Structure formats: C-alpha cells, structure tokens
Amino acid sequence: MRARTVTGAALVALLALTTAWLFWPPNTDRQIRRRLTALADEFNSNTADALGTATKAVRIGDYFTEDVVIDLGQGSSTIVGRETLVGMAARLQPRTGPFTLRLDDITVDAAGDGRTATVALTLTITGTSSVTGPQSIDAREFSLGMHQSDGEWRIARVAPVDTIK
C-alpha cells in the first residue's frame, strides 16, 4: 500500500510540474537574454559567399522591428528602419570577419504589459590580428527598447548611454 501512495504522490507532482511548465507565463528576462545572445551568435557566424552574406544580413534584420531607430552616438548618423539596417549589414559583412561582437552586463527591465522592455547592456567589439591575437576595439554602454511581436522580442530602439558625467 505504501508503494502505491509514493507512486501516486510522484504522479501528482509530475502532473503539477508539467501543468506549471505548460501554462506558466514565460520568463521575459530569460527570453530577451536568449534573443540577444542569438543575435550576437548570428553576427559572429561566418559566411563563405555573397548569397550567404545577404541571407545572414536578412537574419540579422529579423532581430529588429521594421521601424527601428539606432543611434550609435556622437559622430555617427542615425540608422532608421530595418531595410536600411539589412542593407548596411549586407555591405559590411565581408569586412566584419575578423571582429567579434559580445553583449555583457545585460539588465532587463520589463514593462507590466509583457510586450515591451528596456535593456541596458555593454556592447564590445573585439578585433583579431594574426600577429597580436584578440584586441578590444570598442566597448560601450547602450540602452535598447524592445517589443515583442509575432512571439519574438525585437529591438525597436538603440541609444548610447553616457557613462561619463
């Protein structure tokens, strides 16, 4: 009789865990971090031909909203729209091979609506030289405005954070 009680309790616990896993709201923080990590992985992946470069640029563009606005800071022009970004990515990809993108110190502040979030992060670009090895080229703080659409989190706004006061 005791074995049946233990088995029954285990089945109830398994059913409760399965139900919680299926119906519990997704963790926004984890989803956004996973999405940004995938973007960095996509940027860092290599392509061998022109068609691969164009395809990669389109895949990178999918991480952004149609009307994205990217401000990289003083001295650079604002990038407006996914199409513009994809075009730039397609032209730049052959020259970004020796560079690695890393996103660190990701802090997610999700809005109560579950569809928008503000993300603070450090973006680091590292170049690699065959002579000197990896060398940090640039590291900057950015604020991202993100929106969830079609079940995916996409970047809608990028703005630099002034860390020197």
What does it look like?
There is one protein chain. With 165 residues, the protein is an alpha+beta fold. It has one domain (26-160): Nuclear Transport Factor 2, Chain: A (Roll), CATH 3.10.450.50. It has 4 helices and 6 strands; from the N terminus they run H-H-H-E-E-H-E-E-E-E. It has helices at 2-23, 28-44, 50-61, 82-92, and strands at 64-70, 79-80, 99-110, 116-129, 133-149, 152-160. A 6-stranded mixed beta sheet has the order 2-1-6-5-4-3, covered by helices on one side. Strand 1 (64-70) and strand 2 form a beta hairpin. The longest helix is centred in the first third of the chain and has 22 residues, at 2-23.
List the helices and strands and how they pair.
Blueprint: H1 2-23, H2 28-44, H3 50-61, E1 64-70, E2 79-80, H4 82-92, E3 99-110, E4 116-129, E5 133-149, E6 152-160
Parallel strand pairs: 1-6
Antiparallel strand pairs: 1-2, 3-4, 4-5, 5-6
Helix pairs in contact: 3-4
- Termini distance? 71 Å
Helical proportion, percent range: 25-40%
- CATH fold field value: Nuclear Transport Factor 2, Chain: A
Rounded average pLDDT: 84
Query: Which series of helices and strands comes N to C?
Result: HHHEEHEEEE
Structural class: alpha+beta
Report the total helices: 4
Number of strands: 6
Q: Which CATH class is shown?
A: Alpha Beta
Q: Poorly predicted ranges (pLDDT <50, ≥5 residues)?
A: none
* Largest sheet: number of strands, sense, barrel closure: 6 strands, mixed
Work out the count of structural domains. Answer: 1
Q: Could you give the order of strands across the largest sheet?
A: 2-1-6-5-4-3
* Strand portion: 35-45%
Q: Architecture, CATH level 2?
A: Roll
Using only CA atoms, what is the Rg?
A: 21 Å
